[in-house]
């Protein structure tokens, strides 16, 4: 099969949106006071997201200036430093357009990691070659492309086995990494919190562990037993290479066990906050979706959270939780999650499982789809696949088509037909945000009981909870206390039963 070169610079489907700071009422999810997002307008003080973005853009890699290792077999013992790369994809199913879109996404991932993409090629095969991923003949052709372009790295659009990595490197004579290693490298660059860094490190070690032998051909191996004919093994003849690999493997296993313990301890604080919200019966809404679909921009638009927004894949990894209110005053939490991507590495899903549990425990998932992407339905399917992996398929879902200001009208028409009930918005311009807020309000769990109570002024805490957790139909201040007519959760209703009255 011939390899097909893919144009990677003519079309960029990943158009990010710069979030403005207009918003509804918000406050920190665990704070008592309420802050208005409108107060950010007119202020010269940059928010946290702007500061992080400036820090991220402060220095950039310059191609050709870094010192690369001459021995690519030692690549597992250092951080990945991608520079001038050639992309290669094996196309086993779907159309040529699907293969091109996948390679364009790989280009975006490589550029997000700091690489300069020089060339991209795809090959049609019934299945990847078990030895070199592309076959021996095409591997030689790939080596010629690498030599002609001056590339120092080949990135494969798939997860390669240790044997495939080793044998392909032997042919092309430069470093070879796969899609999984690339995504892990991006996560390592963008993780900000202590928990996020630990989760990424655990995923990287899980990926690295079975590949120590795949990148260790330059190290000597243990030979056969002394009794074997022609064997070079036996007592005193075992080389240091095997000892080094086994030592590294034990160290990695010990480090992974330590990271799992640390992550378990870190999750306690998040579990306490989550239990507090459950006790107060505050509905939880989670924003999920494909990476670079505009989730953080939407969170900023709805709450003025000020989280980092960048036209890049996986720009934000650490979850952000803010409190918002419906138009009738009911409080709910709104959280942003890590973006998903097709073929999301299972090591990341496992490492981030404790964080992704926020999605499974939510009362509503706001599923953001990039309307400007050439294949938004594929994004939708990829996200739902990950949601199924974390047991979140049964959580109510509200589809939000974002970036309508940049989307093709024909694509939007198709999405309207295939996704009835979806809300169309533009986080950049604010179009459709009011409709989205109304849709979220209508999709929240219904309040369970209607109450009429005369609450004494000494129990102002109950009145405050009714405002926060319920929906007030009428309120009147009397000599004896505050007369309330409201819909509230069952637990709060039980506490108000003591002051129940029929005269309101």
UniProtKB/TrEMBL annotation:
Residues 283-448 form the Hflx-type G domain. The keyword Cytoplasm applies. It is found in: Cytoplasm. SUPFAM superfamilies: P-loop containing nucleoside triphosphate hydrolases. GO terms for cellular component: cytoplasm. Residues 222-239 have a biased composition (Gly residues). Residues 1-21, 219-242 are annotated as: Disordered. It holds the Pfam family MMR_HSR1. One of its GO terms (molecular function) is metal ion binding. Keywords: Cytoplasm, GTP-binding, Magnesium, Metal-binding, Nucleotide-binding. Monomer. Associates with the 50S ribosomal subunit. GTPase that associates with the 50S ribosomal subunit and may have a role during protein synthesis or ribosome biogenesis. HAMAP family: GTPase_HflX. Belongs to the TRAFAC class OBG-HflX-like GTPase superfamily. HflX GTPase family. This is GTPase HflX. The lineage of its organism: Bacteria, Bacillati, Actinomycetota, Actinomycetes, Streptosporangiales.
């Amino acid at each position: 099969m011939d390899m097909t070169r893919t144009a990677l610079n003519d079309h960029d489907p990943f158009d990010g949106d710069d979030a403005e700071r207009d918003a509804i009422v918000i406050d920190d999810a665990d704070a008592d006071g309420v802050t208005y997002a409108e107060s950010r307008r007119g202020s010269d003080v940059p928010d946290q997201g702007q500061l992080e973005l400036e820090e991220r853009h402060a220095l950039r890699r310059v191609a050709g200036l870094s010192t690369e290792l001459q021995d690519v077999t030692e690549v597992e013992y250092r951080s990945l430093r991608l520079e001038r790369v050639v992309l290669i994809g094996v196309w086993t199913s779907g159309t040529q357009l699907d293969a091109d879109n996948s390679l364009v996404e790989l280009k975006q991932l490589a550029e997000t990691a700091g690489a300069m993409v020089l060339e991209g090629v795809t090959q049609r095969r019934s299945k990847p070659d078990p030895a070199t991923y592309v076959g021996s003949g095409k591997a030689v052709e790939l080596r010629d492309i690498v030599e002609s372009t001056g590339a120092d790295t080949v990135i494969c659009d798939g997860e390669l086995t240790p044997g495939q990595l080793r044998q392909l490197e032997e042919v092309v004579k430069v470093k070879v990494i796969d899609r999984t290693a690339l995504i892990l490298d991006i996560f390592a660059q963008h993780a900000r919190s202590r928990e996020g860094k630990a989760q990424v490190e655990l995923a990287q070690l899980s990926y690295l562990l079975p590949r120590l032998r795949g990148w260790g051909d330059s190290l000597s191996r243990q030979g056969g037993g002394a009794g074997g004919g022609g064997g070079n093994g036996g007592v005193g003849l075992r080389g240091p290479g095997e000892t080094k690999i086994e030592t590294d493997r034990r160290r990695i296993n010990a480090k992974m066990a330590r990271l799992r313990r640390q992550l378990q301890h870190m999750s306690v604080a998040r579990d306490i906050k989550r239990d507090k919200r459950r006790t107060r019966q505050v509905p939880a809404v989670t924003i999920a979706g494909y990476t670079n679909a505009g989730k953080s921009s939407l969170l900023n638009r709805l709450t003025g959270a000020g989280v980092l927004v960048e036209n890049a894949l996986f720009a934000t990894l650490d979850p952000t939780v803010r409190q918002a209110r419906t138009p009738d005053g009911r409080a709910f939490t709104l959280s942003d999650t890590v973006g998903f991507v097709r073929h999301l590495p299972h090591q990341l899903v496992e490492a981030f499982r404790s964080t992704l549990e926020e999605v499974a425990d939510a009362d509503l998932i706001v599923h953001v789809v990039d309307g400007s992407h050439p294949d938004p339905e594929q994004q939708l399917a990829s996200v739902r696949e990950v949601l199924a992996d974390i047991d979140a398929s049964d959580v109510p879902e509200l589809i939000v088509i974002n970036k309508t200001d940049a989307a093709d009208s024909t694509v939007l028409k198709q999405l309207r037909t295939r996704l009835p009930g979806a809300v169309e918005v533009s986080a950049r311009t604010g179009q459709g945000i009011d409709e989205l807020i109304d849709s979220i309000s209508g999709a929240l769990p219904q309040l369970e009981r209607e109450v009429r109570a005369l609450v004494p002024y000494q129990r102002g805490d109950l009145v405050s909870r009714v405002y926060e957790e319920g929906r007030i139909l009428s309120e009147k201040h009397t000599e004896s206390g505050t007369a309330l007519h409201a819909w509230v959760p069952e637990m709060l209703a039980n506490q108000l039963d003591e002051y129940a009255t029929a005269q309101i």
